[in-house]
Structure formats: structure tokens, C-alpha cells
Amino acid sequence: MKRRWRAWPRLGFAVPVAAAVLLGAVGAASAGTAAASAGYRGPATGPIMPVTTCASLAQMNFTGVPDAPGTVTSAALVTDTLPAGPVSFCDVKGVFAPQTHFEIKLPVATWRGQYVQEGCEALCGSLKQLSDYPDAGLTCPAVGTGELALATDDEGHTSSSLTDGSWAKDSLALRAVFGLTSEHSLAHMAKAVITAYYGQPASFTYYDGCSTGGREALMLAQRYPRDFNGIIAGAPASNAAPLALLNAWLVAANTGPGGHQILTAGQIPALHAAVIRACGNARAIIADPRHCGFNPATLRCPPGQNTDACLTPAQVHAVVEFYRGPTDKKGRSLYNGGLPYGSEPGWKGGFAKPASDTAAPADTFDAAMALNYLKYMAFWPNPPDSFTLADVKFTDAEFRKLNLLGDAIYNANNPHLHAFAARGGKLILYHGWADQAIPPWSTLDYYAAVERASGGFRPSQAFSRLYMIPGAYHCLFAPDRSSANFADFLTPLISWVQHGTAPGTIEADTRSLTYPYPITLRQKVRPYNALAPVTPAPGSLNGHYHYLGTYK
Description:
By secondary structure, the chain is an alpha/beta fold. It has helices at about 10, 15-30, 140-145, 170-200, 210-225, 240-255, 270-280, 315-325, 365-375, 395-410, 420, 440-455, 455-460, 490-500, and strands at about 70-80, 85-95, 100-105, 115-120, 150-155, 205-210, 230-235, 425-430, 465-470, 505-510, 520-525. Helix content is about 30%, strand content about 15%.
């Protein structure tokens, strides 16, 4: 692979200085403010009625809001059709500096004092549809009855695609908004708008995010422990900077002569079926892919054959690389691991496309994510405009360089959640065992560090839970997002925060991993102990390897 650019080692040391200037201001601003004290226990009953009209919010001045000088650009009554029937909301839209767009929906006659802020996905750039029901993250009854005030933002930029990172090219400030401050700022803006509308702040505040939203959720618990009483972090992209190396690795491993893909979407059904036959239980579910020892070579084509029912030697090698994940020449992992056994259907579009697509894998989702992050967001100064994924180096030096800005802005890997816990904050993490976009290993490694920092599994349960969902892909959606494995995490989180009832088992849909991915049963999932010893199956490519990163 030709390496055309060599300037990063010489220029990378400027990153900490520039980032420190930004982060110093961020930390100082947040130290004395709070969207809601975790010790506050206001009224949880209702409904709480507005004290002013919805339209009047657009005439109010919110430029003095701490950490979020904002302007309301519109405020209008809207009606959403929810399971309980039509519900009226005051739909507030606006912008806070420098250019973050937000939307807040305030129930007109059904609010009971709770505020839920929703995260975004991928590289964001648009407003999530609020009050959309059902949703994998918001399936609790309180959403369906319109009892919650809801808010979201675009993380500081507007983009036409979730993989667009060009907005960050010339701005460290916008990178800091995306990586660090947008959700904290929105929490303050929402508090001010809620107080103006109802005459009182929210009694309890919650954050719910998956993927990038899950990273945002952990960032709030780690860096802004006063902002929320309860936080849900689903499939978090917490190890964000090294995740770009995984995306780049998958594309590189699937690139053959002439830049064409090695494994196409056509071979994936046969590969997936072979994995399920080897490792699935009676319901075609792989409970823990580390206990799977599937060898892709067992699907090798006979000499002279090349069909969708088998794998060529080059495809066998590529599949091994997918499961193993990015490594340096010494075999050390540059990410927490590779793709889990059972995730294969999600590879379509990610880094493999139909054989008729002659541009693949360069036109895949993983290629776009890796290129946009590495070219526009990961380094300061940026690589040249000629940079391509062929310039990515899978080395220890590149890993460390990538984490200079990663640790300063993007990574949410700090396991010391003492400040959040001390204020009574509660955290629920969840991840699907078959996650094809963010493999579960980073969450397992992070939560193991949380347990160690807390003094062990039992002390960690005083304020946190981790749920690992069998048969679940990214953010509990099917690979084609046609359906979801419904699991209500918000209701038990509310009960934990407001009534002190700690969650035990969570009911979640467990999906058969065979096409067409039917839901097979409603399963009780126990809190997971990430420190419990696990012995991978012999020959497993999902075993635990030496990862170059640390959690501290």
C-alpha cells in the first residue's frame, strides 16, 4: 500500500496546545453550573401547565444562558399522534453560538416535570425527529402519552449526510462543539426555555443516546456530571478516534487488485448461515460471540470454483481480518477488537456491496466515515487534500497520534464517574452482541474499567448497569433498520432516579440471527459483569487481544 504523506509525526505535537486552550474554557464554564442537581427532588406528579403562551417564547431573550447564548427563532403549537392519541406540544426551534441548531418540544397539557434530551448518530448534522414513536431508544410509556419534554440538536453543524466531516476542516472550535460541548449547552438552553414556559425547571433530567449519542451520553457523565440525573448510553462510540482505524481497516482488508472489493454482498448470506450453524443455539442466537470458534476456512471453495456459496482464499483471508480487527505488525490491537460473529448481515453497505458495484468498497459507509473523520476531524493541522484511505498507517505511532486530539475532544473513555455518582446520578449502558457498526468490545472494556475504578462489580452497581443484548445489531435495529429489538431502558432509569428502585433484569426482544431476522422471544437480560473471566472458544477470532489503549 503506497504511503504518500509523511507529515503527521512532525506536525502532530501542536494538537495538545490548541486543544488545551479550548478545553480550559470549557471546563471553567461548566464547573459552577448545573442543568439539574442530582440531589433535587421536585414534584413528579402533574400535569404542570404553562404560565405563558408558546408564541411568547420566540420574543424572549435567552442570550444570557450560561454556556449556551441562544436565540429562539420560532415557537409554535404542533400536534403529534402518539399511542395515547393526539398530543399538543409547543415546538421551539432556535440556535445557540456558534451555530448549533436545536429543537425542544414542550407538552402543552401533559407535562409531569421530566426532561429527556436525545443524542444523534454518526457525524450528526441534522435534528433528530422528536416524539417519533416507536423508537429503539424511547419506548417507555411516558413517551407514548406525551408526558416528557424532549430536545435534540445537530451538534454544531448542518450536513446533508451523516458521514460528512468537511464542516470540521478549518475549525477546532466546531470540533469541540461536536465532541464536547453541544449536549451540555443544550441542557442549559432547555432548562431556560422550560423555566420560562412552565414557571419552573424540570424536576428530573435524563439523557438518552445511542452510537454517537451513546458517546455523548458518556461524555456528559464524565465531564458534566451535574447536567443530568439519569443517563442512557447505548452502543456508545466512546473510543471514537480508534474506531476510525477499525472503519479504515475493514475497507483496506476488503480491497483487492484494482481497488475492487474482495468479499461482496453475495457471499454474506452463506457466510452468516455457516456461522450460525457453527455457533448459534436452538433459536439461532449467539449468546456471546467469544464462545464461537468458527473458522472461515471451512467455507473455502473447491479449487477452480468461485460462487456465492463459498469463499475464495482471498475472501477467507479478508473475513479473518474482519473478525480480528486492526492490528500493527506485532499483532497488537489498534481497536478493542474486530467484528463479532453473527454480525455478518450488517456488513452489507458497511464495507461490502453487490458485485455489480465496481466502486466498492470505496463508496461504502465505513469508507466515508473513516475518510471524513481522518481527513477533516482527527488531526491538527489536517492532512493534505490529496489524502485517501490508502495513506492510513496501522501502526503504534499512528494510534498514539490519532489519540492526541481523540483524548482531548472525542474519546469518552474516563472510567472515573465518582462526581456523577456522588450527586446521585444513574447510568445505564447497553450494547448488542451482534453489533456490526461498533463492536461490543469497547463497551465491555470501558465498563470493566468503570468497575475497577469503583472498587469492583458490586460497588459499581450503586450507580450503573450494563446490559448486553443477545441477537441485537447496532442500536438494537435490524441491519436494514426495518425493525428493532425493543427494550425499555428509560422507564427503569426513571424509577431508579425518582424512586430509588434499582433495575434488575431488563426485558428485551432477542432476535433470531437467521433471515428474515424474526423476533424469537422476549428475554430477561441480567446486568452484566464485565470483569467476569471469559475463556474464548479455541480458535475464536473474537478473543481478547493485547489492546494498545488504556482506560484511565
